[in-house]
Design a protein that fits this description.
The complex is a heterodimer.
Chain A lengths: L6 H6 L3 E5 L2 E6 L3 H10 L2 E4 L4 E6 L3 H8 L11 E8 L5 E11 L2 E6 L4 H16 L21 E4 L5 E6 L3 H9 L10 E6 L2 E6 L8 E6 L1 H14 L3 E2 L2 H11 L42 E7 L12 E3 L5 E11 L4 E8 L2 H8 L11 E5 L2 E8 L3 H5 L7 H5 L1
Parallel strand pairs in A: 3-13
Antiparallel strand pairs in A: 1-2, 3-9, 4-7, 4-8, 5-6, 6-7, 9-12, 10-11, 11-12, 14-17, 14-19, 15-16, 15-18, 16-17, 18-19
Helix pairs in contact in A: 2-7
Chain B lengths: L2 E2 L4 E5 L5 E5 L1 H7 L2 E6 L5 E2 L4 E7 L3 E5 L4 E6 L1 H5 L11 E5 L11 H11 L1
Antiparallel strand pairs in B: 1-2, 2-3, 3-9, 4-6, 5-8, 6-7, 8-9
Chain lengths: 399, 120
């Protein structure tokens, strides 16, 4: 059993704690709705120390990571982070990652807590292949690979370097003031900061759809930061419950629910993080497969239902056309939302070729218990689509 | 006095042989933020174990089971309209037994508390 860095703090605050992939994580403190509201309107802090963290360093670190992952690290500027995926040979997503580039010889990589063992094994396997004389990587036409065996250091720093996320409209100001940062970092930028001889990495990333930072530092520093800011500012702690609603409104996939090792990035609406023109990367030849396509589902405001994972979706002729992988109640929309994979071959063909289909995708339905509920298929970026618009405009989005 | 069930409902006598039914504070806390309360509108009488009401929270679904054969005589409309305020203290339905009350497999306050602790 593992404990996130704020475990004592969570116990003191009587958080509702559950087991999450072996980690004792808070679902909520004062309530999912309040924590959600704080994140959208002010600022909240999430203990994300359960995520897996790695340093990759050395002369060939970049070439190796570019071979392991789908996005392009070589053209990424120093001081910038990217969202990317780690694929198996079949093009399925082993995990989705954020990688930070300090310089071409030093990277920080973040993976999901639930996949840490799998990812560790995968790194070991690929690194061993690289070192072995029988290396299959000899076929890889990336410079420096054959000499790279001694030039990569991979270090699991999950317990040494902790991580929190401070998210919301006030988040950057609060953290800037605390850490003495003068300017607000732009999206997916990061900076190393030294304060009282202690080191922090501050990055403008997150999983909520709000502006904010993720902060990396040794555990004691982050515990103190959270305690200080929660007692002297408007910052409130938030748990996994609010985080799930926030990420779904933002249309972000959760590995294990919406993406997995059988799903390709092209199926998951993640083709934008696959640089298919890259010379080579694991899974390249299979990752464009599309046997299903991810979309959003928006329910009528009057429907009293929250569609759960595994719920089947039907068209107006009651043909099964898809399955829900995540569903929740969207507080901002006041109705249920879900991510759905359309699996019907005709529909996929029509989406890919961008032609209209005979099947009316605007009127789909799900069956829960004995009742039928109708919904519309939309792009999965619920929050982005409505931010700045009046809720009444939703009906227009739905049409 | 409230009597609790292992399925986390409680009942308490109201008047005229009827009972209030609600869920325990423990269950309300575990369920988290309730966003909808669904009533079984097409059903007027229930047998023991039937679903009387469904509490849909952000993270989970909780059914309120009939502890005995009953009919619903009143619904707490206030809590149905503002489900987010559910704490477990308030009653959800007032139910009336259809037959003479059978012996109930219920727990008192402290036994329920011990049961919840054991259940973890």
């Amino acid at each position: 059993m593992s404990f996130p860095i704020l475990h004592e703090f969570n116990l003191e605050r009587k958080a509702n704690i559950v087991d999450f992939h072996g980690w004792q994580m808070p679902v909520s403190y004062e309530g999912i709705r309040e924590e959600y509201k704080a994140t959208r309107e002010k600022a909240s802090v999430f203990d994300v120390s359960h995520m897996g963290r790695w340093f990759f360093s050395g002369k060939n670190a970049m070439a190796f990571l570019d071979y392991l992952t789908t996005n392009d690290l070589s053209s990424l500027k120093d001081g910038k982070a990217i969202y990317t995926t780690l694929l198996n040979e079949e093009g399925g997503i082993i995990d989705d990652l954020v990688i930070y580039k300090f310089n071409p010889e030093r990277f920080l990589l973040i993976n999901n807590a639930g996949n840490h063992d799998t990812v560790t094994e995968w790194f070991r396997l690929q690194h061993d292949k690289l070192k072995s004389a029988e290396s299959t990587l000899k076929n890889v036409e990336i410079k420096d690979y054959e000499q790279s065996d001694k030039d990569i250091t991979i270090e699991d720093i999950t317990t040494k370097l902790a991580q929190i996320a401070v998210q919301g409209p006030l988040a950057k100001d609060l953290v800037n003031e605390y850490l003495g940062l003068k300017d607000k970092l732009s999206y997916f930028s990061f900076r190393e900061i030294s304060l009282n001889n202690e080191n922090y990495i501050v990055s403008a990333t997150g999983y909520t759809g709000e502006a904010g930072y993720e902060i990396y530092a040794k555990p004691s520093l982050l515990i103190k930061l959270v305690e200080d800011l929660c007692s002297h500012s408007e910052l409130v702690p938030a748990g996994l419950g609010a985080r799930d609603v926030l990420r779904l409104e933002a249309g972000y996939c959760l590995h294990g629910n919406d993406i997995d090792d059988l799903t390709t990035p092209y199926e998951a609406d993640l083709d934008w993080i696959v640089k298919i023109t890259k010379e080579n990367f694991i899974g390249k030849s299979n990752c464009t497969r599309q046997k299903k396509i991810l979309k959003g589902l928006l329910f009528s405001i009057s429907e009293k239902i929250i569609p759960r994972t595994g719920t089947k979706v039907y068209d107006d002729e009651e043909r099964e056309i898809g399955v829900i992988t995540s569903g929740t109640f969207s507080f901002i929309l006041g109705r249920a939302i879900a991510l759905v994979y359309l699996t019907d071959p005709m529909i996929i063909k029509s989406i890919i070729s961008n032609k209209t289909t005979k099947i009316n995708l605007k009127k789909v339905s799900i069956k829960v218990r004995k009742d039928i509920f109708s919904a519309s298929i939309v792009e999965p970026w619920f929050y982005r689509n409505i931010r700045g618009k009046e809720i009444q405009d939703l009906e227009a989005i739905q049409k | 006095m409230k009597q609790y069930f292992k399925t986390h409902e409680w009942i308490e006598e109201s008047s005229n042989g009827a009972y209030y039914i609600g869920i325990s504070e423990y269950a309300a806390r575990r369920l988290g933020d309730v966003v909808f309360i669904e009533q079984m509108e097409d059903q007027s009488s229930f047998i023991s174990g039937d679903t009387l009401m469904i509490l849909e929270s952000v993270k989970a679904v909780g059914d309120i089971y009939a502890p005995f054969a009953c009919e619903v005589v009143r619904v707490n409309e206030k809590i149905v309209k503002t489900p987010e305020e559910l704490t477990g203290e308030e009653w959800l339905l007032e139910i009336k037994p259809l037959d003479s009350l059978p012996k109930l497999d219920s727990l008192n306050d402290s036994d329920y508390e011990a049961y919840v602790k054991k259940e973890g």
